[in-house]
Amino acid sequence: MKIVPNLSFRSSVLLVAFLLAQGFCYARTITGRDSVVTTAVEPGVTHLSFFRDGPNRVNVLVVDLKSKNLKVTSFRPVGLVPTTLQASRNDRDGHRVVGAINADFFSFTTGWPISNQIVDGQFILGTFSVRTHMLIDESGKPRFEQVSFDGWLKTKKDRVYQITGVNDVHRNNSIVLHNSYSDSATSRIGPGKAIPLRLLSPSWSVGDTLRMLVGGDEPASLMHIQPREAILWIGGAPSVWDAREALKSGDTVFVCLGFQPALKHASAAVGGMGMIVSGGKFVEYTENMKERVSFMFLRARHPRTFVGIDRDTTKLFLCTVDGRQATSVGMNYQEMADFLISIGVWHATNLDGGGSTTMVVRGRIVNSPSDKTGERPVANTLQIIRLGAESPSH
């Protein structure tokens, strides 16, 4: 432990950066108003716990994106599951969950996230959205984009139909593809026709043209779909009706599941709600209101979960701030931006907060969730994975 009195908050952060660069495993810096506890979780991952004037308690997990054995991914359970359990369910030999935070906003009714999600290059949910997403591109680097699902199907006779979603809500004029992540919330087929498909291409991929084989019996539900299979649900509206007749058993068809604007080969994605910081500067409230974020939500102090990257995309910052408690009141977007800019974040987006806000480091909650019942079940998480053999120190 190292104690340094009478420093500004900015100086404290710079000192923390210096200590990290020198390989210190544990350090503490204190000012008259703010303190930072720094813990090296393992090579390439550092946990910072800030106690700030406000008061506010902010937890930050800093990930070195240059580390070859670290992977950033998203995770989707069946239904709503607490962040700690999501981390433990994805943890196994050679695939250790070092840290996790709750991710997208979600529906308590369906248990599904609000925006798009991708896991290991496969759509968990493809849907219309006007919101910012955090995506991991084909180079393995995080990026922040406003994207919406965009898909199509081309038949044997070269007729092209729009696919409106993946595991998404059924509408009379929609064509929705269901894969192995389809669950009880979307298990009823309803009015329409369900057509089985089988993947012929080597693997699922975002934005690529996939070869698929039509065939098999019409299923009784949309559950228990195998990993290389899919069900294409076609509604009953005249605009999509002829697609039912255009797909014949034994036909090879072509399918593309991607984004608009186009973005190929994303390995992971979760939805957010507005940009907090862009280009190292605070994003004005009027810009975020274009993503259908209310002015009151932007201005109010709440528990928050947020994620950012530095200027050269070599560090990822997973962040939570506790709120609705005497020891931590929470932050608004301006306050989050001020904090993020002070620690060197260049781009950042807001994730689901409130009672959902949770950070887990090596299986342990390190923040203080605001719900009286404790940790809240959520729809998905962002996770940091260490690949390969166990570290000698753990």
Notes on the protein architecture:
The protein has 394 residues and is mainly beta. It has 3 domains: 9-60, no CATH class; 68-148 and 267-297 and 331-387, no CATH class; 149-260, no CATH class. It has 6 helices and 29 strands. The chain has helices at residues 9-21, 83-89, 238-246, 285-288, 295-299, 333-342, and strands at 26-30, 35-42, 45-52, 56-64, 70-75, 81-82, 95-102, 117-119, 122-125, 132-136, 142-146, 148-154, 160-163, 165-166, 175-178, 193-199, 209-214, 229-234, 252-260, 268-271, 275-278, 281-282, 304-309, 315-321, 347-350, 359-361, 364-365, 377-378, 381-387. The strands form 5 sheets. Strands 1-2-3-4-24-23-25-21-22 form a 9-stranded antiparallel sheet, covered by helices on one side. Strands 13-12-19-17-16-18-15-14 form an 8-stranded mixed sheet. The radius of gyration is 22 Å and the shape is elongated.
Oligomer: single chain
The overall pLDDT, averaged over residues, is 91
Q: What proportion of the residues is helical, as a percent range?
A: 10-25%
Overall tally of structural domains: 3
Count up the helices.
Answer: 6
Please give the alpha-carbon distance between the first and last residues: 21 Å
Q: What proportion of the residues form beta strands (DSSP E)? A: 35-45%
What is the CA-atom radius of gyration, in angstroms?
Answer: 22 Å
| Major sheet description | 9 strands, antiparallel
* Spatial shape: elongated
Q: pLDDT under 50 segments (min length 5)?
A: 1-9
- Sheet with the most strands: spatial strand order: 1-2-3-4-24-23-25-21-22
Summing up helix and strand content along with how strands pair, one would put the structural category as: mainly beta
- Give the total of beta strands: 29
